[in-house]
Structure formats: structure tokens, C-alpha cells
Amino acid sequence: MATKALLITLLIAAAMAPALAVDYMVGEGEGWKLKVNYTEWAAGKTFVVGDNLIFMYPAEDHNVIQVSGADFKACNKSGALRGPYNSGNDKIALDAPGKRWYICGKEGHCDGGMKLVVSVEAGAPAPAPSSAPATGSLVWMAASVAAAFSMVMAF
Ligand SMILES: [Cu+2]
User: A GO molecular-function term, please (predicted)?
Assistant: First the structure.
């Protein structure tokens, strides 16, 4: 019985853990490039504080700049709020709720569709700076569920 409870605990913990933070590969398999509809890519996805955006592209071809909504509309790359990021494998943390606008800073690329806007939700009431306490409480919760379950099974 104890083994069964442990197994259930592990299963529940494993199932819940990935919900803590998600890494979104921008454009999925297409990556960050011209002629991809990033509005379509972002549609239906819920971005939460703690999640990450990953921009993958050949470093010499593109870059990533975070700009204001107005600069996004105008494809104005001179008003960078953050960046340019140009590693070709940029992991950008969504560390605050609200809208975020990203464009490629290479000439003509933003106008060519290399622009992404995401809306970041606050998510959990108090996002922990590290995932350790959250994981701990999840494991504790899973253990409680498993303990209750094993008690039921004992009857
Ligand atoms: Cu580009």
C-alpha cells in the first residue's frame, strides 16, 4: 500500500510540475523569421508571468527588440525598451503582466511580418521568485491526496 501511495504521489507531482512555467518556442518549428504569422501563432495561447519566450533564428539574419505599442505599429526600431537580443537563441522571461511587443530590427523585417505581441497574465496570486517553494507545496499537496487515497483503499 505504501508503494502504491508513493507512486500516486510521484504521478501527481509529475503531472502538475510542468504547469509552473512554460517555455514558448516562438513560431514553433518555424522559429523567428520572415513570412510567419506570429499573430496566428500567439492566438489561443495564454502567457503567464514566469513563462519564457524563446526566439530561435540564425544570429546573423535577425534580432529581437522589445518596443512600445506605438513603435510596434510603426515598426520603429529606434525606441528599444529592451534589446536588441541577437544570440540566435534568446530566452526572454515574461517577468511582469501586461502587453509586450517584439519586432525584428533588421531593415524591412518588421514590415515583412517579423513582429509579435503577447499579453501576459498575472497568473498565481504571488509568483515566487524561485519555483522551489511552489514545487514543495505541490508535493505536499500530492502527498496529502495520496495519503487520503491510501486510507480509502485500506477500508
Ligand atoms: Cu528579421
Answer: metal ion binding
